[in-house]
Every structure is written in structure tokens, then in C-alpha cells.
Amino acid sequence: MSKDLLSYVGESGVIRLMQRFFPDHAHYVKKGIGDDCAVLETGGKDLLLVTTDMLAEGVHYTTKTTPYEDIGWKALAVNLSDIAAMGGTPHTAFLSIGLKSSTPVSILESFMRGFREMACEAGVFLAGGDTISVTSHSVISVTLLGRCSPEGLVFRSGARVGDDIWVSGFLGNAAGGLEILLRNEHKEEEGRQMLISSHQRPAPRLKLGKALGESGLAHAMIDLSDGVAKDLRHICDESNVGAVLDRGSIPISEPLQALARDLSHDPIDWALNGGEDYELLFTTLPEDRKKIEELTVSVMGRTAARIGFVVKDKGVWLRAGSMRTQLTHRGYTHF
Length: 335
Hints:
The protein is of the alpha+beta class. The chain has ten helices and 13 strands. The chain folds into two domains: 6-150, CATH 3.30.1330.10; 164-326, Phosphoribosyl-aminoimidazole Synthetase, Chain A, domain 2, CATH 3.90.650.
């Protein structure tokens, strides 16, 4: 493979290359590249959060598995999850979309219905954007603004050795739902419908993210877009630590376990590498376990799952009994 190609440097290498052209922060940039949102100081009491996500047809979605209305929902939801991971509150969105000129008007209407439904649920207003005509696959870009108090802001970089590692909900459901859709093994079963919904209409943890930020309990936090094996590594890299996950503590839903049995697949693989769960992964002091349990029950109606702990040695390991296996993420990587 040629070293002159983007496929050689990979996604992280592309980001580092771009960052080299802007090595210094502007004075108002509290946090730039390297977290779920950029954080800007505006002179007011709150900080401005800014996040952008792109969705490309054939890469992030296909109409074979996701209706246009759900694509609209998801396009905003993935950005909302970034705001949640910083402990913030979203307020204003900008939508840019590229579609073929031959696209039926009804398709755009369906997309916008889903986008508006998610926006109304989250209290977000669409204030602008851009539209273009494309010759091949459609592309969607959403920029979302939010606010957060300086005291409630949570970065990826605050994890400490000895911290507990928590996740807000079940892992792997979205990957299981996608598997059902790709195999065209749709059955009218409540459990399978739940997995499909997890893929098509993720529910960003806005209330929990804000509550964790305001509580001051979370040292580091990230949303799970690419799977625990990859996203936890981001926290470890930014915090200069490592992590150990307990296999038996990974929360896997009954419907996902049933699907895994039917397909002779290890559900842990979906949980660690599947991605698109958009749950929150965060670290806290061990002595705050009771507080975390009480807070998550009050916000979500159930407790978060404690799935591991932070260690000094670099890397991410999965522990099963006395055995430890170092994880290498197999989630999706661009380029």
C-alpha cells in the first residue's frame, strides 16, 4: 500500500494531517479537535458547543435498511449524542443535504418529518444550512449548536487511574438490528422490533449527559458511535491511561442474546465492535457508585452498568475470570 494514499494513514492520520495546519487555538477556543464537540467561549456565562456529523449514502445508511423518515431522525440524533457526551443542552441546528435532482419531493418530505420529530423532542430549531444537487449518492451534514456551563462540561480527557467505567444502557442492539435488516430475517417479534428500532432511531442520552455534567461525578465521557472497543480507546488516549472491561458485566439485552443464539454469533462481538448504540460511556470515582446508581435511576428509571475500571498501563483489555485479552477495535474506520 502506497504511503501517499489516505488509505495508508487512515482516519486518525487524516485528522492529524488537517490539525497540523492549525496547531494553535484561537483565544476563544476552549477545546478544538479531539473531543465530541468544539467548545467556544462567547463572553457569556455559558460555553458554546459545536458539533458536525456527515452521513453518506452507502456508508452510513442505505434505504434498503432505513426509511427516509428514520434517516432524518438519525441525522440529527447522532449530533445530539455528541452534545450529550459533553454534558450540554442543544438548541440550534444547520442542515446541509445533497440529493439527485431526480429525487421525488416525497422523499425529502419524509426525511424532514423525521428530522423535525427528533428536533421537537430535543428542543432544537433548524436555522439554516445548504442544499446541492449530486450526481450519485446522497450526502447529509448536520451542524448542531448547544450550550453548557463551565462547571458542567465533561471532556474525554479526565479519566483517572482507579476510576469505574460505566455505560448508560445495553450494547450491541443497533448492530443486531442492522444484522436482522441485512439478512432480511424480519420477524414480527417484539424483541426483534426493538433491535431494529435501536438501529433506525437511536435515542441520545441528553438528560443523562446533562445530569452527569451538573453533578460533577463524571471525570470523562464519550458517546458510543463506533463501539466500546474503539470509543473507550479515545478516552484512554486523551487521558493517558488504559482500561480493563469485565466480560460478564457488559450489558446485553435478552433480544440480542436470542438473536445471537439463532445466528450462532457471539453477542460480545456486537457489543464491543458493532457501534451506533449512542449510549454514554463515562468514568467516575469508585466511592461514588451509590451516587451514580441513584442518579441514573432518577434520570433513566434504571441504573447504568459498571463494566470495568481504569488502569495505568496503556491499552484496552477484556477480562474473563483470570484471563485478559487486549482488544483491537474492529469497528468501522473511514479511509
